[in-house]
Amino acid sequence: MPLTFDDLLSRARALPRAGRRAVLGVTGSPGAGKTTLAGHLVRALNGDGGPGGPWVAHVPMDGFHLADTELDRLGRRDRKGAPDTFDAAGYAALLRRLREEPYDEVVYAPGFERVLEQPVAGAVPVPPTARLVVTEGNYLLLDDGAWTRVRAQLDEVWFCELDEAERVRRLVARHEEFGKSHDEAVAWALGTDQRNAERVAATRDRADLVIPPAALPCPDARG
């Protein structure tokens, strides 16, 4: 039987164990639909209802982008979005906190402002009622440096797979939506983004589940 979105919901519901919060990772190349899938999962699962408040939270990896001023200092701004333009160790530390510390208070995670293209501290609250955290990002399965610590904090990692032409089309549309000209968007998608996509694609076999396009929610330009 083909994998369906309902199958994904059932699998996600089974992840939390008594007394411990679970963390589900959603990964894939830029433009593959990670953010879209994560958002649909969180909304659908929270629609199940539960005592005290939402039981699923969404914590994107994008909040751990290094600020542009730091990228300028390091000489990495022209390849923003590459693995070494994130605070991977900080991301791993937050995931460990979410998994291991007693969840009797709100934990704040950083967010990312797409219009400004900058991280924003304390923008994503994870309430004590959350028993499952869905986190998404490109490099959850990267076996390099501090990224290995990220994988260790994830109960499962799902890989979003999308036709390459459609993935690039969505990516160009996203860049245009947030201010790039068409030519700039194409150049970035086929340059910096493509190099990153190739690194992410090489991690596919490490995923616990590969999600085909038919099981993904309605597409948009996110992820």
Protein model, in words:
This protein has 223 residues and is an alpha/beta fold. The chain has a single domain (5-212), classed as P-loop containing nucleotide triphosphate hydrolases (Rossmann fold, 3-Layer(aba) Sandwich), CATH 3.40.50. Helices cover 36% and strands 17% of the residues. The protein contains 8 helices and 7 strands; from the N terminus they run H-E-H-E-H-H-E-E-E-H-E-H-H-H-E. It has helices at 5-13, 34-46, 68-74, 88-100, 147-152, 164-177, 182-190, 192-201, and strands at residues 22-27, 56-58, 107-113, 118-126, 132-136, 156-160, 209-211. It has a 5-stranded parallel sheet, with helices on both faces. A two-stranded antiparallel ribbon has the order 3-4. Helix 7 (182-190) packs parallel to helix 8. It is globular and about 50 Å long. The two termini are 26 Å apart. The relative contact order is 0.24. The model has no long low-confidence stretch (mean pLDDT 89).
Mean pLDDT: 89
Quickly give the structural class.
alpha/beta
**The CATH homologous superfamily:** P-loop containing nucleotide triphosphate hydrolases
What is the name of the CATH class? Alpha Beta
The fraction of residues assigned to DSSP E strands is 15-25%
